[in-house]
Amino acid sequence: xTTAQNIVNSPYSRAIIERKVSFKSLQAQRVMxxxxxxxxxALFSISVILPIISQNEEEIESITAYIDEQFSSAESDINxxxxxxxxxxxxxxxxxMAQYSKPEEFVVxxxxxxxxxFLRLVSELDLLMGLIDTAWLSGEFDDKQKKNSTFQYQQRLxxxxxxxxxxxxxxxxxxxxxxxxxxxxxxxxxxxxxxHEDVAAATEEAESDMPLEATG
Length: 216
Description:
- By secondary structure, the chain is mainly α.
- The protein has 6 helices and 3 strands, in the order E-E-H-H-E-H-H-H-H.
- 65% of the residues lie in helices and 8% in strands.
- It starts with a strand and ends in a 10-residue tail after the last helix.
- 34% of the residues are buried.
- The C terminus is likely disordered.
């Protein structure tokens, strides 16, 4: 069992919901182990930083809409793939789903609604991986199809995490430029834990097209 908790402790009491979840597929486990803690901290920090650096409701709403779109797009991609592979299994009369030898359990503390949304996306990824592995074990996918598909959707969520972690960094830069760095650090201390290389690469990639309004 893995416990996913805040690496950086806030000086204030936070409202949290603790959940125990289990993921069967290696890809869902990787997403959790490589990105969840850092993403959760970033989402909390963004929720704290935005009201500090901007009193402009339209600016805050535009950034919130950007975050919503990132989640919605990832969910749409995963659901579309799930529908396609479910159809392949149905058309070929395949009903018995793949089982997994080493599910991993996580105990997580959710301190923002979006952290819960990401957790739900990992659950949807886990279901998708089950469909892909079933298609492969049943001979409907070859080795290359399986490898490419599982990697593609694993990285889809890691890239989502990277984009939002990058957004948090840009929000901190904006806070510094507006003379709010000390207030931000007091209420949402920076998390200096090292990023996994996959998440770090996704964060760097996101820098090229992050909305400028995010930094103000």
